[in-house]
C-alpha cells in the first residue's frame, strides 16, 4: 500500500540492510525508516504516523529483555511489532507476544522465512502465546504502563536514583516520584524492589 512506512530497529547496519531488502520485496512502495538504538526507534515511531510495521531486535542499545517491545507497543499500540532476534525462539516468541509483539522470527532464518513473517505481520496475523496464569497477569499490568512510566521503571532496574532518572528523562524529581506511585499501584506492589522483581520476572532488564 502506498504512503506507508516500515520501521527497522536493529543496531547492526548489515542486518538492517537485509531486513530492508526483505521488507521492500513484500511492500515495494513502503518507505523504510532505520534506527540503531531504542531511543531513535521510539522517536521515529512517535514522529511517523504512517508506520505500518516495526521490525525490532531485542538486544540493541537502550533495550534490555523485552523493554523495547513494551515501550514501542505502549507508544504506538496500533502498530504491529515483529521481533527479529537471535534469542531462543521457543521462549522468546511467547514472551514477546505478552508485551505486544505480533510475531517472532529468528535472525538465523533465511530471507524467504523472514519475508513470510513480514507478510504475515502486515496481514494482521499474530502468534499465540501459551497461557501462564499469574505471569500473564503481571505482563498485563506492565503493559498498562505509559511510555514514561516504563522509562522510569527501566531506570529503577538500572539502579538509578530518582534524581538521576529525572535528569535522564528531562523531568523533575517530583514527577518521577509521582510516576513511581502510579507504577507501584498498577503493578500492585509495595515498593521499588518489588516493582523491579515483577519486571525482571517478565524478562525486562535481562539481556538477550
Structure description:
The chain has helices at 13-26, 38-47, 67-75, 89-98, 111-122, 134-143, 147-157, 162-169, 173-187, 192-201; strands at 5-9, 31-35, 51-56, 81-85, 103-106. The protein is built from 10 helices and 5 strands. α3 links the parallel β3 and β4 (81-85). With 208 residues, it is an alpha/beta fold.
Outline of the structure:
The protein is α/β, with parallel strands linked by helices. It has helices spanning 13-26, 38-47, 67-75, 89-98, 111-122, 134-143, 147-157, 162-169, 173-187, 192-201; strands spanning 5-9, 31-35, 51-56, 81-85, 103-106. The longest helix is centred in the last third of the chain and has 15 residues, at 173-187.
Topology:
Layout: E1 5-9, H1 13-26, E2 31-35, H2 38-47, E3 51-56, H3 67-75, E4 81-85, H4 89-98, E5 103-106, H5 111-122, H6 134-143, H7 147-157, H8 162-169, H9 173-187, H10 192-201
Parallel strand pairs: 1-2, 1-3, 3-4, 4-5
Helix pairs in contact: 1-5, 2-3, 3-7, 7-8, 7-9, 8-9
Any descriptors?
single chain; five-stranded parallel beta sheet; 5 strands; 208 residues; alpha/beta; 10 helices; 12% strand
Instruction: Give the strand tally.
Output: 5
Approximate helicity band: 40-55%
Mean pLDDT: 84
**Spatial ordering of strands, largest sheet:** 2-1-3-4-5
β content, as a range? 5-15%
* Rounded Rg: 17 Å
- Which consecutive residue ranges, at least 5 long each, have pLDDT under 50? none
Shape: globular
State the order of secondary-structure elements, H for helix, E for strand.
Answer: EHEHEHEHEHHHHHH
Q: N-to-C terminal Cα separation, in Å? A: 34 Å
Secondary-structure class: alpha/beta
Biggest sheet overview: 5 strands, parallel
Total of DSSP H or I helical runs spanning 4+ residues: 10
InterPro entries: CheY-like_superfamily, EvgA-like, NreC/VraR/RcsB-like_REC, Sig_transdc_resp-reg_C-effctor, Sig_transdc_resp-reg_receiver, Tscrpt_reg_LuxR_C, WH-like_DNA-bd_sf
Protein name: Response regulator transcription factor
Pfam families: GerE (PF00196), Response_reg (PF00072)
Keywords: DNA-binding, Phosphoprotein
